[in-house]
Batch of 2 targets.
Target 1
Amino acid sequence: MGDVMMRKLIIALACLISGMLAIWAIPACADSDSEWASIDRPSMMDALYVAYRHYGYVKTCHERQHVWATYVSDDELDHAKEKILIIETDTLAWLNDAWHKDQDVDTDSLFNKAMDSLYGATIDKENCHAELMQLFQTKSSAGKVKMKKDF
């Protein structure tokens, strides 16, 4: 494993441990084919796990809101659902393409593991929006979609 990839993995693990939950190893973050080749299956699965955690936290924020406090709006949750689906689809497509076969990834199990890790998390408006922004800032094929002129 190259030095750059090792540094990215160490930083990602440090962030996971510290609770910052940033993603650096999602495939669409790679700027060139050589970077794609250096990303391996475990780091891809770790990145998907972290994205699931971001989404799970946002969904929990939405579910725990009260009449007097809206942490995550319905529209924000809808956008988060779209984003996590794109991230998951990108990751699975990359994994299957990289090994030229179906990788048989158990996304349900990985998602459940990510949700279990949120047990006891502090839910407040500031953290809810920070997690939402982390999810939205995760690069994916959604960033490659050309916007149509609407005016």
Target 2
Amino acid sequence: MNGVLFKDLKIDEKSLSECNPVYRSDDDNTRLYIVQNDPIRLDWFGGMAVTLVSSLQREDWWNDPYLEVEILFKLHAAYDGIRHIWFGEAVGDAMGYIYYPDMVEFVEMFSIIHEWEKKFCALDL
């Protein structure tokens, strides 16, 4: 599991630490962020799911400046739906690899993403 600093993560130049998650796991270790960051192109959005790797704080770790997370996936959607999904982080030989994924969390997150897709993309989904 490779950790990256949460404070350094961005979706289309918007810092995740400035965004509200659209999904939180029951233990709040995993979060999904979706950003609609273009005031002109309302049919575009980006997303990123992350999970806790380490924190120096025992509580309120999402505000820890040294919080490390693992990127579960990133995605981009346009007018015609989800276009790109990248799983994991391309680090060493672990490209796209996720260790023991929680499939219930993935189903819940992808259900939320699909709702965003139906709301903001022009497809009849």
